[in-house]
TrEMBL record:
PANTHER family: BRANCHED-CHAIN-AMINO-ACID AMINOTRANSFERASE, MITOCHONDRIAL (PTHR11825:SF39), SUBGROUP IIII AMINOTRANSFERASE (PTHR11825). Its main location: cytoplasm. It is found in: Cytoplasm; Mitochondrion. InterPro entries: Aminotrans_IV, Aminotrans_IV_CS, Aminotransferase-like, B_amino_transII, BCAT-like_C, BCAT-like_N, BCAT_family. Homodimer. GO terms for biological process: L-leucine biosynthetic process; L-valine biosynthetic process; lipid metabolic process. The modification N6-(pyridoxal phosphate)lysine is found at residue 254. Belongs to the class-IV pyridoxal-phosphate-dependent aminotransferase family. It comes from Cyprinus carpio (Common carp). Its cofactor is pyridoxal 5'-phosphate. This is Branched-chain-amino-acid aminotransferase. One of its GO terms (molecular function) is branched-chain-amino-acid transaminase activity. CDD domains: BCAT_beta_family (cd01557).
Amino acid sequence: MLYLFTQGFLAIKSTATVRASCLLVHKCRYIQLVHTQPSHLMRAKQQLSRRTCSVSDWAADLTIERNPVLKPKPEPSTLVFGKQFSDHMLTISWSAAGGWEAPQIKPFQNLSLHPASSALHYSIELFEGMKAFRGVDNRIRLFRPMLNMERMYRSTERSCLPLFDKDELIKCINKLIEVDQEWVPYSTDASLYIRPTFIGTEPSLGVSRAGHSLLFVIIGPVGPYFATGGFSPVSLLADPRYVRAWRGGVGEYKMGGNYGPTIAVQSEAARQGCQQVLWLYGENEEITEVGTMNLFIYWTTEKGEKELVTPPLDGVILPGVTRQSLLDLAREWGDFKVTERRVLMKELIDALDDGRILEVFGSGTACVVCPVGSLLYRGQTYQIPTMKNGPDLAKRFHKELTDIQYGRTQRDWAPVIV
């Protein structure tokens, strides 16, 4: 595929030797040459003559191009997180001049981007993480998808990318899953991961709002997120020299720029024998997140009261869908105090020294609930008694959520889509 810059027109030219066709488009910025056989000339013209549509009509204007060659489906027991992808993808293009183009479900393929695309240089991009589950009744369900759409919408606003209709995007995603429904694992130990992504594709090195963008969704089957698998505890490195996010920044948005810089710290944690990073913030060493998960501490307060505490949504942590679900469940149960507040590292260490810690665990779409077994902080390793205590609460949360996701418990959090 070849792009040529022009300030004028797009010309049609077809010869038997080159067998190439172009579509005449008035005042277009690029020429796209599509090499094709004469019998495919009409199809090439149709592909280049893109339809525009209203953001509120995405589902009605959605087109589907089936992949003629389907890949074999992997066994659920062999799945590695984020390595396998389905046969199709969803794409929706936008430009300041033409608005939204009609959504397309088409064969899974590489993207063609201009080398100066703004996402490649200035991280004008964002993403989401969702899952679909094949239930015990063989029905396919999403889990609280509108919470993901609301979070993606907020990230879109912060990224200065064009806003979308949340309901319409969910309808298009549902259709993509329907097309690739055989990729949803026939297993209650696996699921279909859904990755909506929104990138700026403005072909300019200027640091400015993107005039072109691409929203796309890819999906694929996944097994356990962590190599430890199952319900094995992870070890954490807490090093106050490293900061993931800060107030007034973008830590509460799901942008790629929040994740890439953490890899070096994750590598340092591995070098010191730890599996994840406990992120601290500020001079008081506030506890924020663990790896890419939200953090929960279940302890006995100094007054002798059982309490589940998690950091608040004050701009430093990501508002996780699983986090919100655990808080909702805990408040429904009413068995212990539930608190969202800033927690200092000193409080955690003091509680460990006093023997008041019951369980510490992370939560997230990828891992659901992940127990924490130890903490390396300022050269000292602290054993966390999560597993010695069951972990009763973490397992209770895990069972309650997975029962909803796989249809063993009926709840409107998990709408049936296929």
